[in-house]
Amino acid sequence: TMRMQSLLRKKLGPEHISTRQGMGGSRLSYIEGWRIISIANEVFGFNGWRSSIQNLTIDFMDMTEGGRFNVGASCVVRITLRDGTYREDVGYGMIENTKSKGQALEKVKKEATTDALKRAMRQFGNVLGNCVYDKEYVKSLMQVQKQSRGRIQGDNLYRYTDMEDVQGMAQPNGIEKQIQPPAQHQQQQQQQIQPPPLPSANVPQRQAWNPEDPAQRRIVGQSDNGPASLGNPALVNGFKPPPGESSDFDMDELDDDGMLDMIEDLETDRPIIHDSPSS
Questions:
Q1: Is 5 helix (H, G, I), strand (E, B) or coil?
Q2: Closest CA to 230 of 248, 253, 251
């Protein structure tokens, strides 16, 4: 993008460049590895680039007569941007006359990897270190005053409280809690999950059994067409038929609604009452 290209063209200020003693008493200018990574995150975004080690080789490892080690390693690192553009370069690390073999290997591998990363990064532009190879620029940079760092403020520091806030958003299984929706959204959700309305007062309700009511004398187990025995004239769901009347029931006398009512009564253990079919 235009913004990224503009940032890559900029040259680094003196506060970003460090110096060290070189061979023959010269001073060498360089950029620290952590600073290159920070600038790359600002230019490309923290998820806009990645690095990968293409090759890491121990070039030599010698042990002196005193039991000390001299080790050298080389590394090739590739930097790939989000759009697939990549650059790669080689870096080198070396240590001499060290007592520990393990520490020597650790140092040279890290040094070679960091050196390769910085050399690959500089190929993207001045702001990522390419300007340091311009000797005229480095020489004129000595006349530029360094900017002082801003005062460290509590809001800019990552503290224990920040860690507790992050942990508080996580469930015991490691899944983050979902952010609660606004109150208005919750109210809309509650309205959508309202229970169905109660039956209207106009809907006829099932009446309790009253043996004196002629309209309710039609009981399951009773037939006007004579006995069509179901077996034992026992209690029907705990209710006994009126005296002198049979508990037999003619299934042919039931219409569709009556059959559904009978099934519902049997499933719910309620008194089985059936209105007489209309003539």
A1: helix
A2: 248
